Amino acid sequence: MLVVGLTGGIGCGKSTVSHIFHQNFGVPIIDADVIARELSKTAQITELIYKKLGATYFNNKRILQRDKLRQAIFYDANIRYKLEKILHPLVHKEIDHKLKFLNAAYCIVVIPLLLETRRTNYIARILVVDCTVEAQIQRVIPRDQCNEAHVRAIIAAQISREARLKLADDVIENQAGKASLKEKIAVLHEKYRVMSQHQSLRQP
Predict the structure, then answer these.
(1) Strand, coil or helix: what is 162?
(2) Helix, strand or coil for residue 7?
(3) How far apart are alpha carbons 185 and 187 in whole angstroms?
(4) Which of 155, 158, 179, 190 is the most exposed place for a label (fewest CB within 10 A)?
(5) What is the pLDDT of residues 111-133, one digit of tens each?
(6) Edge-to-edge order in the sheet of strand 106-110
(7) How confident is the model over 43-95, as pLDDT tens digits?
(8) Gap between the Cα atoms of 59 and 104, Å rounded
(9) Residues 6+ apart with CB under 8 A from 7
(10) Read out DSSP for 111-156?
(11) Cα dist from 63 to 71, 144, 176, 182, whole Å
């Protein structure tokens, strides 16, 4: 099975692209953010977060305040590092587990920090969803109810657009609307389908 790693900056449209791959072409999607959210709800992980980060990001009932923590990790590299050290190994372990049970020509694994963490050993192709920084800001502000400074801080904490594009095997420009996006995804779907067939032929 061909494994395509989908990534991109905040607001570039990773969720929209993965949804179209799944809805229009039935491609299995594994989303690292969804896995991380589920893990962070477990007692084991919340206890680890409490031990590593303290009570700051919990309410008086010791319930994790996810929005507060999400904002903090983009402004404090130390907090981000500690949280990543807890979650990333478990997220990638779960991705490996899910991949073993898939039966498809190819699948999409959505990992926002794919290039930052460099955990690409199981990825055959890197697909980057791209748009301008201005478009990112315009999309994220109303979506997350935040200000421009906050969005720019998140963008600055991620790998640069130029570096991301340089590392990409394939790029989807997400600037011209959903109809155009669907056309581009249809082309890539056929490309990945053919590549997966060639990959199968090479296997003993």
Answers:
(1) helix
(2) strand
(3) 5
(4) 179
(5) 988 888 776 678 999 999 999 99
(6) 29-31, 106-110, 2-8, 125-130, 170-173
(7) 889 999 999 888 888 988 888 888 888 778 777 878 888 888 888 889 999 99
(8) 43
(9) 14, 110, 111, 112, 113, 114, 115, 126, 127, 128, 129, 164
(10) -TTHHHHT--TT-SEEEEEE--HHHHHHHHHHHHT--HHHHHHHHH
(11) 17, 21, 41, 40
For strand 125-130 and strand 2-8, is the pairing parallel, antiparallel, or unpaired? parallel
The amino acid at 165? L
Contact (CB, 8 A) for 14 and 7: yes
pTM, two decimal places = 0.87
Tell me how far apart the alpha carbons of residues 177 and 133 are, in angstroms, rounded to a whole number.
16
Least Cα distance to 188 among 18, 58, 8 occurs for 18
21 close to 27: Cβ distance less than 8 angstroms: yes
Coil, helix or strand at residue 170: strand
CB 140 within 8 A of CB 42: no
For 89, the token pair is 């190994």
